């Protein structure tokens, strides 16, 4: 059987380190109330850094597959950050944008629309 330079216990540790880092970044981002794009960009950066380190530092290509998966996951996280920048969620949008010209929220407009035909002040 061929040996690629690392044992199974080392390979498991190489998968645990990025996982722990991702959880720590997620917890810190939640405590600091970072925006979604910033959180995803920091997660992506850490994945790509781990992938590059694993590709360069692990001997005999022992973690090239893991490095490729981490780099691809980082690219997907960057795409998710881009999606949140282009199309932010409703609760992250500016509340001024969701008001109509009278200054009422759209929810107020829909809830009072059924009562607008009952009586009018001019009759």
Question: How is this fold's topology laid out?
Answer:
Blueprint: H1 8-31, H2 36-57, H3 64-86, H4 106-112
Helix pairs in contact: 1-2, 2-3
Q: How many separate helices?
A: 4
- The N- and C-terminal alpha carbons lie at a distance of 94 Å
Taking all Cα atoms into account, the compactness measure Rg is 25 Å
- Class of secondary structure makeup: mainly alpha
What percentage of the residues does DSSP assign to strands (E)? under 5%
Estimate the mean pLDDT confidence.
80
* Poorly predicted regions: none
Give a short synopsis of this structure:
By secondary structure, this protein is mainly alpha-helical. It is 62% helix and 0% strand. The radius of gyration is 25 Å and the shape is elongated.
Description of the structure:
This protein is an all-alpha fold. The chain has a domain at 8-89. Helices cover 62% and strands 0% of the residues. The chain is built from four helices and no strands. It has helices spanning 8-31, 36-57, 64-86, 106-112. The chain is elongated and about 90 Å long. The model has no long low-confidence stretch (mean pLDDT 80).
């Amino acid at each position: 059987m061929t040996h690629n330079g690392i044992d199974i216990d080392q390979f498991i540790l190489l998968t645990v380190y990025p996982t722990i880092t991702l959880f720590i970044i997620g917890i810190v981002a939640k405590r600091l109330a970072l925006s979604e794009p910033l959180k995803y960009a920091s997660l992506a950066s850490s994945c790509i850094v781990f992938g590059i380190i694993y590709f360069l530092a692990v001997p005999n290509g022992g973690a090239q597959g893991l490095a490729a998966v981490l780099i691809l996951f980082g690219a997907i996280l960057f795409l998710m950050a881009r999606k949140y920048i282009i199309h932010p969620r409703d609760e992250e949008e500016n509340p001024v944008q969701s008001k109509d010209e009278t200054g009422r929220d759209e929810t107020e407009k829909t809830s009072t629309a059924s009562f607008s035909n009952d009586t009018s002040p001019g009759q």
